[in-house]
Amino acid sequence: MKKWLLALSLLGVSAFAEDAAAVVEPVLNSGDTAWMMMSTALVMLMTPIGLALFYGGMTRSKNILNTFSMVFGAFAVAFIAWVVAGFSIAFGTMDGSMNQVIGGFGHVMLGGISWTEFASVDLGQLYPKFVFVVFQGTFAAITVGIVAGSVIERMKFSTWMVFAFIWTIVVYAPITHMVWGGGYLFNEGALDFAGGTVVHMNGGLAGLVLAILIGKRAGYPKVAMKPASVILTAVGAGLLWFGWYGFNGGSAFGANAIAGVAYLTTTIAATVATVTWIVVEYAVFKKPTLLGAATGAIAGLVAITPAAGFVGVSGAFIIGAVGALIAFFGVTALKKKLGYDDSLDAFGVHFLAGLWGAIATGIFALNDKGLLWDGPLKASDDRMGQIMIQLESVLVVGLFTLVGTIVVYYIAMALTGGSRVNEEQESQGLDESVHGERGFNL
Questions:
Q1: What CATH number corresponds to the domain at position 244?
Q2: Which of 295, 302, 104, 105 is nearest to 202 (CA)?
Q3: What is the radius of gyration, based on Cα positions, of the chain?
């Protein structure tokens, strides 16, 4: 009798344990939460401070405040657009074929998302979804900020702000969905760790399109247009580099080993690209400039962005070096040959280095389940197949950005009565003529 009672007791305990296990709720991971919040802060630092200083130093002194204002304003407007509809389009879900391009409107104004909700329980991302929203919103903001570099010194501030808002929703958000949010390129198996296509190709190409549509600055290229302060640009580059650890490291979505890989590959690519630019510049022009070194660092950071969590040491070396060479060619020979006025070389640095990085990801990604945060190479372990998928991704993103940017430009121009400042404002400088302030009162 005692044996039966003992057996029944053990069965009861076992059943209770199973029931308890079945209702165990996931628990917030405080370490990952802290890391993602810190990464978000680092990426936020990149736009209204790092990029604003980087761009501001390269523009003429009469336009430095306007340049800073365009980047600073872009951050604010883009993030508002992200909350209003961008996040829903990028990371929402909907039925039907349209889900290949947009995620729907179920989370407009972040509706349907609870403050207690986790980012993704299935993927082990046990930090608040609201943190994920802000983290991704800073990516949207810096992408718009990159675009500004192509059109400073001649675009109306009002047109720019309207363009930034609409472009975030119409162009940036759908591309994000296609690559990261479960859309077409995501399903195809395209690899983009932290934004080679989504951020840098997208922003760089949009900048070139705007520059061509608006036209060249008065006097370009005959009039000398010297930077206001190369030192400010170098400081901006350093802050961008610092923030990039959140940009790439945060894209591991946790305080984990992949974040450590991204830290290492990011640093390798940036340092190699810096030295590569210095050497090439000295070989071509016989003078290694600080502006060149800063630009080289950014080119290396851009190039490694899509590959940061997917490649090893040798891959990072090659990606950084070639990224610097391609960007150097883009801002010197290609720009001179084609004659476009990309004011601060957003296309030459961000699009071209980002394009190389996106393709190089397929070439150098390590087929290692322990390294790739989303599994082995998705094209059935076929290296050439993965490269072809990467090529497809850059073509799709490039075409979508090209068409979408043209459409948004004409909408913004119609809403604001033109896109370009008048001749008098451009001659005087936009700091005083548009904002009524000076960047420097010397």
A1: 1.10.3430.10
A2: 302
A3: 24
Q: In 3-state terms, what secondary structure has residue 46? A: helix
Instruction: Name the H helices within 118-156.
Output: 129-148
Q: Provide the percentage of residues in the chain whose pLDDT is more than 90.
A: 86
Distance CA 304, CA 14 (A): 52
CA distance 154 to 210: 11
Whether residue 15 lies inside any domain: the answer is no
Long-range contacts of 118-122 (CB under 8 A, 24+ apart): 118/26, 118/28, 119/36, 119/253, 121/26
Distance of alpha carbon 141 from alpha carbon 137, whole angstroms: 6
- State the maximum Cα–Cα separation within the chain, in Å, rounded to a whole number: 104
Non-local CB neighbours of 80 within 8 Å, separated by 6+ positions: 165
CB 74 within 8 Å of CB 144: yes
Is residue 154 assigned to a domain? Answer: yes
Contact between residue 47 and residue 145 where contact means Cβ atoms under 8 Å apart: yes
Neighbours of 229 (CB within 10 A): 18
Under a CB-based contact definition with an 8 Å cutoff, are residues 50 and 71 in contact? no
Residue pair 397/175 in contact by the 8 Å Cβ criterion: yes
| DSSP code per residue over 311-370 | --HHHHHHHHHHHHHHHHHIIIIIHHHH----TT-HIIIIIHHHHHHHHHHHHH----TT
- Full DSSP string of 84-103: IIIHHHHH---SSGGGGT--
Q: Tell whether 18 is covered by a domain.
A: no
* Kind plus residue range of the DSSP H or E element containing 301: helix 290-304
Which residue range forms the structural domain that includes residue 262?
Answer: 27-432
pLDDT tier at 135 (50, 70, 90 boundaries)? very high
Q: Are 301 and 268 in contact (CB under 8 A)?
A: no
The structural domain count of the chain equals 1
Confidence check: pLDDT of 261 > 80: yes
List, for residues 346-378, the tens digit of each pLDDT value.
999 999 999 999 999 999 998 775 555 444 445
* Tokens matching residue 105: 């409107």
Could you report the per-residue pLDDT of 272-300, keeping only the tens digit for each?
A: 999 999 999 999 999 999 999 999 999 99
Q: Decide if 4 is inside a domain.
A: no
Mean pLDDT of the chain: 92
